[in-house]
Amino acid sequence: MATAAASRRHVVAVPYPGRGHINPMLVVCRQLAAADAGLAVTVVVTEEWHALLAAAGVPATLPDRVRLATIPNVIPSEHGRGADWVGFIEAVHAKMGEPVERLLDRLERRADAVMVDTYLTWGVAAGAARGIPVCSLWTMPATFFLALYHLDRWPPADGPEGEEGQSCKSLDQYIPFPVLSSVKCSDIKIFRSLALELPMKRVAQVFSNLRKAQCVLFVSFYELESGAINGISQVLPCPIYTVGPSIPLMSLGGNLDKIQREKYSDWLDAQPKNSVLYISFGSYVSMPSSQLEEFAMGLHDSAVRFFWVARDKAVTTTLQQISSDKGLVVPWCDQLKVLSHPSVCGFLSHCGWNSTLEAVFAGVPILASPVAWDQLVNARLVSDEWKIGINLREQRREDGIVSRATISAAVTKLMDLGNGDSLEMRIRAEELRKASHSAIQEGGSSWRSLNSFVRDLAEGKLNVAETSQ
């Protein structure tokens, strides 16, 4: 859809510095380059993230018109940032904006638009100060966006119902959107805790600033979250575009992944069709070792074949002891390729949004074990809204741990092709798989939305003066 106007356009993309944000941002940048042959994109990352991407060979795979630019390492290292999550959030808020603004000012080719991660609190102001249109990119589910947008209407954490009462109460009783009926008040109760007081203050700031953006892009797709997307269209004062599923088509495992790939590909090829449970709990938020041990023993009891991406040395040792010929433990893999392998029949996941979208794209049912943030909402969508999986969080003991017996029973149920509930999940997962593929194909909902975004950008409909009238 190339136009003369678009050929002169330059978009500067600024992702939040984390794997779950950088990956989808890069995918959207690829999509933009594919949608218009004249559009140039500069992606701004820290020097550390540039090195991580380079080690994985990512720059070489990007289109010629998508290039990387760096700012200094003004924030804590990606390695071990989970040890002080709140400190990392504050560093991104306080220290990252200034070097990004300096980069914007010294670019040889002025930015015609800035595509900035929604969670970057200073992003909208940086563009507005320069008269540059700001396109906010939301890398989590639209449903979670809708819930956070109405943060001021959430029930208090110390309400009269208590934890037990709130566990069954839906968020739509406080926020009048039916799509939020699947989200329980207990799912968002954690956000009201003292430990998250400062991060939630930043979230409130993000959504206050967002009302000044020229548009918002979502990495979801309409058929998956139509209710939330319709709801957002009603409340946001700017255009929205759904361009997903923005699936990361590259791994960040680097040479390690290349070493492992031959081994795990051969192992998967040797397994019967629809017999393997794929397991990964992401790269950032960690589970207690006691819970990981319960998962390991529950798997052992179920006798199901499994493929586990494990980075905890103690758990890896335990898994290797119980795996025998029924399991394989690796430190990293190309997740989408593994999920798409014929032998894989289920996915035990922390329900990060990228992992959830990849499971939907591959048509694989999910056994959800969410830990924090949007994962709790994602797990509700998986089990209650889309009905493509089981939410293990509902089956925790009083100490917050899911027992090995519960895990074994859930794994057995999910992987049993003769089980009626499992069959229904697979039928629904296949329907969503087809919908996700159709959305990004020519003429699909996300294809149309992406091209509308490129056209609106080229025609100046997203310019600051136009959208502020």
Automatic annotation (TrEMBL):
<protein>
    <recommendedName>
        <fullName>Glycosyltransferase</fullName>
        <ecNumber>2.4.1.-</ecNumber>
    </recommendedName>
</protein>
<dbReference type="InterPro" id="IPR035595">
    <property type="entry name" value="UDP_glycos_trans_CS"/>
</dbReference>
<dbReference type="Pfam" id="PF00201">
    <property type="entry name" value="UDPGT"/>
</dbReference>
<dbReference type="InterPro" id="IPR002213">
    <property type="entry name" value="UDP_glucos_trans"/>
</dbReference>
<keyword id="KW-0808">Transferase</keyword>
<comment type="similarity">
    <text>Belongs to the UDP-glycosyltransferase family.</text>
</comment>
<dbReference type="GO" id="GO:0016757">
    <property type="term" value="F:glycosyltransferase activity"/>
</dbReference>
<keyword id="KW-0328">Glycosyltransferase</keyword>
